[in-house]
Structure prediction request, 246 residues.
Amino acid sequence: MHSQPYPALYAPKDGYVFVVTYGRSGSTLTQKLLNAIPGYQIRGENGNALYHLARAAVVTSKWDNFVWRREDLHKAKSEQKSFIRDIIGTSSDPWYGAELVDPDAVSKSLANNFVAQILRPDETVRVSGFKEIRWHEDRAFFPNFLDYIKNTFPNSKFLFQTRMGEDVARSAWWKNRKHEDVMTMISNAEKMYADFSAENPDISFTVKYERYAEGPSYVQEIFDFLGEKVDEDVIAQILGSKLKHS
Prediction:
């Protein structure tokens, strides 16, 4: 029997939760609430580090020059594409070696290192993950980014957090930006969240910051989606604590 080749990635036995949002949405409160669930360890922001790894993984999976060579490597020469037929697997090929790249192994090994070196979950953690406010910065890549996570991190779930645009625009650094630009950012981000959620309803939940005012009953809706329960007194205490960060 072979040992698990990606031990860090598969160590959190119940999977991962990713909080997808933009700045000043109240996501740190969500992070704190999630970490009140026994066995959960949801880290804070990491500067969108996973985005860069996902880009590398998607390139090896979808870029034509990788795909063509993988497809033709073991075909009879007569069936190979004419433009690579005489060079595939040789040093005459500008993409020499691309035919040997296993995109699944690339994806999982990058994810494994991300978990081991950046998330660094404790041994008792059964659900890992993180919250990030920069997911929307590459709109064209966003669907590929979340698909990479969905297909690579076991049992992934996504919490898409939103907040009333006017409140975001007045908060912290956003108030120094052009109001129109902030509202456009929010609109674009929430459209991306909605599109992914519509295609992946079983693993997606939209957290509406304003509904936290309803108290523990709303938080339990989020936890129901995750299949978790937390003592209402614990939830109420967290909701009643004012977060101190700018």
Notes: The mean pLDDT is 94. The longest helix spans residues 179-199.
